[in-house]
Predict the structure.
Amino acid sequence: MKTIIITTLVITIIGIVVGAGLVYIGNKFHVEVDEREAAVREVLPGNNCGACGYAGCDAVAAAIAAGEAPVNACPVGGAAVTKMVGEIMGVSAEAAERKIAFVRCKGNCDVTHNQGNYVGIRDCRSAVLAGIPVTDCDYGCLGFGSCVAVCPQNAITVKNGVAEVNRARCVGCGLCAKACPRGLIELIPESKRVAVQCSNKDRGPLVKKVCSAGCIGCTLCVRQCGSDAISVTDNLAHVDYEKCIQCGKCAEKCPSKVIIPPLNA
Amino acid sequence: MTSLIMIMIGNALIHNVVLNQFLGICSFLGVSKQIKASASLGVAVIFVITIASAVASLLYDYVLAPFGLDFMKTIVFILVIAALVQIVEMFLKKTSPAIYKALGIFLPLITTNCAVLGVALTNVQNGYNLIECIVSGFGTAVGYTIAIVLLASIRTRIREEDLPAPLRGAPIVLIAAALMSIAFMGFAGLSF
């Protein structure tokens, strides 16, 4: 009987001492752990595409929780994810609009001339490195599909020599824009449709010589625009999406029909 | 001094905790996929076992033995080791986040590593004093680290081999561990 009592007492005392010690040390060595980081990580898409510019979803979650990245840092998740992250972080989410990749070239095999003397690796970056012309146009799409290869959503196809983005599939990660050696791909807000489908910076006559669908820098569109949203620099029109109201007047007047009209037109 | 060296080498090689006493097999097989990870676990184990041996020895000598509670040592040691790992974890988290990050999940995993408990109990059984307990704990943990790093290096090579289908995965790892165990029997010739 005595043994049982002693045993119980000693073990109880050891338990209490250990427990109290843990509580004391736990308080003393308390480290602020940001629970929001784990919560943010939960709502992120988790495909680690790296489009946000961080090493992956874990890294961007840490950055958001630390306040180093905005709540809309994930371009892939779009408005839904931004809203959830905003709720976790206690920030009312500013609507980050989904962006969609757009290939600024219209020069398919019908309107431009293919010199066809490049016989190297069928890859855009290799072709640019080799310095051998693939098409007459020095700015246009090469059509070997380096962007197709990097697209995680299989949203890009090369049709008739020009890459084309499937708007429904694109998640706006921007990997194609980084892969394109000619920098043809631009990320455009989903609601905007008016866009200049050419990247040629040569002067009008030179453009006409190589491609019948190119922007000749005539500035007719600039004069049409009521909201000062379109400008011509380096003989190439460009739309400012902060200002563009999608009226489509520029597209109507464009002599080369290189500006895409708005969706509702 | 000589006896301490003997305890050290004896525990690290001759009575290797994994390959001779078959303790801590779970983490030995579970974490030995990468050399780096297993080395981290090894360091964490060295750290915890050394401290745990000291604390267990003190507890046994000054609390359990005087009260004649020898039979309760297993339960008390489990309790103390679990608390100790928690304390070490909190301490590292606060004082050196770099080490804490490097050890990562392995630190809490050690709580359930039977090698830690095994060392504490063996020490008591052998009637070691405090210094001998610490040396014995350290030696055992070094033995554990040697074994797990060796297995991890073997496994990284096995992965690149074209194995017969039935041997792929766990079977070949168990065979490799068994061969290592047999090889370590050779140390028994170092009779101390």
Remarks:
- The longest helix of chain A spans residues 2-28.
